[in-house]
Write a structure and sequence with these properties.
With about 300 residues, the protein is α/β, with parallel strands linked by helices. It has 2 domains: about 15-115 and about 255-305, Alpha-Beta Complex (Quinone Oxidoreductase, Chain A, domain 1); about 125-245, Rossmann fold (3-Layer(aba) Sandwich), CATH 3.40.50.720. It is about 30% helix and about 25% strand. Helix 3 (about 115-125) crosses helix 4 (about 140-150) and helix 3 (about 115-125) packs across helix 8 (about 255-270). The structure holds NADP nicotinamide-adenine-dinucleotide phosphate (NAP). NADP nicotinamide-adenine-dinucleotide phosphate binds near residues 140, 143, 295, 298 and 300.
């Protein structure tokens, strides 16, 4: 159960900054954590949330004085923190407070943390240049960015798979060449000759269908951690088709240089308007449960945020 409680604001430790949160990102995996369906079970009670954007209001001893008053985005997860973001204040190691360009708003900035980095690093992990790629949940937070970044990275064709006409229309507007509604039966046949790469961020029974849309010799990049459901027989059939299966986990790929470079690139693209951040809804902090409900009932497109 998610509900709001009053807690004292954290005091920044040496080397930390205190950030007044203007936007806290909500991610789909947090709905799984809340339901006890994620790989790692949290110790309760907990404050969910692994990413925020806001203004530095105070400094701990030794923290860079130049950061006072700065507009920053904070990927708490990259600082080894799996919680604490759904809050009015966050104290964090100053090395994880990334300055925002003037034209990038707080709500857009949080979309570029877990979701932007996931989209960006998925493409680095399995580059799409010249290939036909299939993006699952293409209207979602990760998916809407992945469609755009795959086009920028030179994908030959982008097939968007999602549920419902609105999400597919969104994906087409963002640059997908083809849209397939995977809530309708028989959708793999609509993928034509098949995809060279499937970016599977959904998992479960939809992986099987996605695999039916994968060309011989193609690659399934599996990012829906904890929701892998292919049978040994289906894996054997992949081998018979010379197909490969590749895992994707964001955190182990995020060294300090990759984090800084990737965020700088994403922030610049979004600030210049070359990358569109799709707004999926803003909720008050005390309405976090409603935000979760909207995400898990598949009603949202793009990024869902909490605004304290
Ligand atoms: N491996 C990693 O390191 C990593 C990192 C970040 C995120 N991820 C994964 O990437 C995926 C996207 O994350 P996100 O935060 O951007 O979420 P999101 O795409 O904004 O929302 C999740 C989407 O999943 C689709 N979906 C399919 N089956 C569903 C079901 N049974 N219940 C609810 N939704 C369902 C829905 O889109 P449709 O209605 O179009 O089906 C829904 O909108 C998540 O699965 C997340 O776990 C993985």
């Amino acid at each position: 159960m998610l509900h709001a409680v009053d807690m004292p604001a954290p005091v920044p430790a040496p080397g930390e900054v205190l950030v007044r949160v203007h936007a806290a990102g909500v991610n789909f995996f947090e709905t799984l954590v809340r339901q006890g369906r994620y790989a790692e079970a949290p110790v309760l009670p907990m404050v969910p949330g692994v990413e925020v954007a806001g203004v530095v209001e105070a400094l701990g001893p030794g923290a860079d004085a130049g950061l006072l008053g700065a507009r920053v985005a904070v990927p708490l997860f990259a600082a080894g923190r799996g919680a604490g973001g759904y809050a009015q204040y966050v104290a964090v190691d100053a090395a994880f407070a990334f300055r925002l360009p003037g034209r990038l708003g707080f709500e857009d900035a949080v979309a570029l943390l877990v979701q932007g980095l996931t989209a960006s690093l998925l493409l680095r992990h399995s580059p799409p240049a010249g290939k036909t790629v299939l993006v699952m949940a293409a209207g979602g937070g990760v998916g809407s960015l992945l469609v755009q970044l795959a086009r920028r990275a030179g994908a030959g064709a982008v097939i968007a798979a999602a549920s419902g006409a609105d999400k597919l229309a969104l994906a087409r507007r963002l640059g997908a060449h083809v849209g397939i509604d995977y809530s309708e039966g028989g959708w793999p046949r609509q993928a034509g000759a098949g995809a060279d790469i499937v970016y599977d961020t959904v998992g479960g029974t939809l992986t099987q269908a996605a695999l039916d849309a994968l060309a011989p010799g193609g690659e399934l990049v599996f990012a829906a951690l904890g929701r892998f459901a292919l049978s040994p027989a289906r894996l054997e059939a992949m081998l018979m088709d010379n197909q490969s299966l590749k895992g994707f986990a964001l955190l182990p790929l995020l060294d300090a240089a990759t984090l800084a470079e990737s965020l700088a690139s994403l922030f610049a693209l979004a600030a210049s308007g070359e990358l569109e951040v799709v707004r999926g809804g803003s909720f008050a902090l005390e309405d976090a449960a409603q935000a979760h409900h909207a995400l898990e009932s598949r009603r949202t497109s793009g990024k869902v945020v909490l605004v304290p």
